[in-house]
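Write out this protein's structure.
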Amino acid sequence: MGLRRSLGGSWVRRAIGTLALLLAVACSRSVPPAPVTGTPGPNVRYIIGGDSRDDTAHVLPWAFREAVARGATAFFFLGDMELTPELDEHFRRAVPLLGLVALYPVLGNHEVRIFGEIPIGHAHAEKAFSERFLNTAITPTRSSINEKVVYSATLPGGVHFIALDNVSQSGFGELQLAWLAHDLEEARATPAVHFIIVGMHKPLAHNGASIHSMEADGPAAIADSDAALALMVKYRVSLIVASHVHGFASFQTSGIPSYITGGLGAPLVAGSSAIQAFHHFLQVDVVGDALKVEVIRFPGASSVATEEDKD
């Protein structure tokens, strides 16, 4: 009874959302695909975005097709594939649209909790996620920490991508912070690494754009966020990317270019001056000794949710 009271209308709303998503999937053939407009660029290119759950507008397949058309090397997906983990197989069926583009996924709260809220046992959920999406031909990497989805990969263009988990516990935890320090130190000592991109689902605390972040998880999570940021500053991280908030924001975090990019199909957040509500992904090009970030907007219709639907 206590759980039902704590969830209140949210439980009903998300259950209705699941039914709506299943209906949308069943009717998806009747929805014309959004046009693909991108063409390959002259540089090494990466596509970044997150939050494709409840994707009734079919933003995710458009983004996957764009990644291929634009000649991307890899797609960094920042979490929340579907509304609830039981539907993740639907996301996996869209992965072949990426062709030869590698997929590097980050864990979201909707991967480890039913409707993003009800715990189902993190070890089991992360094991199932790893079996589905890691150590495959399209994602040639394993987790660096047992029973976690935490890893890094050094990729073309001198890019070192780090995937962190800040959803299966409050904050990152001591083990993950220790791993992050070691990985960042090794990356910066590697001559072939010119850029470090750190991806996570929830934005770091005190980001100035949204408190729907690690800030909402309490003092321990905030302390972990601050500790992780200190490491990122020390080892000169090039770019920090997160999703969780269904929209777009760009800002500096202690001098590091940072983005919230949660626009791959989830109902958009309304009512925040710092968050722009449109479906999109980020296109990141390696241009000489710099990363060029461009926002690519979805050309189709978007759905806007209330503030409470943003996670």
